[in-house]
Specification:
CATH class of the largest domain: Alpha Beta
Oligomer: single chain
Strand order of the largest sheet: 1-11-10-9-8-5-2-3-4
CATH superfamily of the largest domain: NAD(P)-binding Rossmann-like Domain
CATH topology of the largest domain: Rossmann fold
Number of helices: 11
Largest sheet: 9 strands, mixed
Helix content: 40-55%
Strand content: 5-15%
Length: 327
Amino acid sequence: MEKRESLRGMQSASVRLRRRSRLSKSTIVIVGSGVVGMATGKGLKAKGHRVIFCDVAPDRVALLRGQGFPAIHTDELAGPEPDAYLISVPSPTVAGRVDVSFVKDAADAVGRAIACHRTWALVVVRSTVPPGTTEEVVLPTLELASGRRAGAGFGLCMNPEFLRAATAEQDFLHPRVVVIGAWDERSDHALRAIYAAWYGVPIISTSFRTAEAAKYVANLFNATKISFFNEMLRILAVAGADPAAAFAGAVQGGTGFWDQWYGTQCGAPYGGACLPKDTAAFLGFAEDLGFGDLMPILKATLRMNDEMAEAPSPVEAPAGIPQRRAV
């Protein structure tokens, strides 16, 4: 696929603090009014934007209207002609694979709405999707349905959400970072303008695939961290240690807990005086107790480190991440 002013070739993300600028108030349609869509829409409304919720479920549309929110059914998307459409529909896992059919259907509906636009509009994917989905599924669907080309005919961004279900609305209002994967500069600037009210929040501008990947990196790390502590809970319990006290000491004393960049300078095995010997020794300790099978994550860690030592990753470590030495 030709470039068409694409930013897809960007190899490293540029992190920039937003400049204080004149706020731009936009009309935004939230396509998909679940947890993410509601938190996003309410947050944007709180910052002064005009928000219209959209959903395929008539009962949800009726509920939103009953709560005083402007809400439309997907069939009515051709009416508002907003400045931006934010796609926040589900992307469920089915048989171990991501089902992007809802995302594609939403893109098709938005594309048909854009076909009736008299002006340029921005489309933003907020749904969690695997790298390549925005480029290979959403983009061609929008172009086919709208009869327009990305760039000149409409803008396109991937803007992953980092929201917790229980505190989604507060998380949206108080983000730690905004990640924007943009098709071109115009799309990037248009989404930055929507977020202009969030002064001082860092923005990472990058490619579609990198923005899509950022959400998975965050979620997979969280899942792995929980599983690691579950693994340690089991082995410490049989070893006669107090897991809660051990965890408290580790969290407050371990570099990897209080230094957010620790371990992210990847591409090579961990080294130093402590990590290689302590990981191998603790697995041996567990095996001597007869509980080596309780430590699959530690075994995988040792295996990964051995593989990296034998054949370091051909991919360069991410630019802009501070280097950290193993301790």
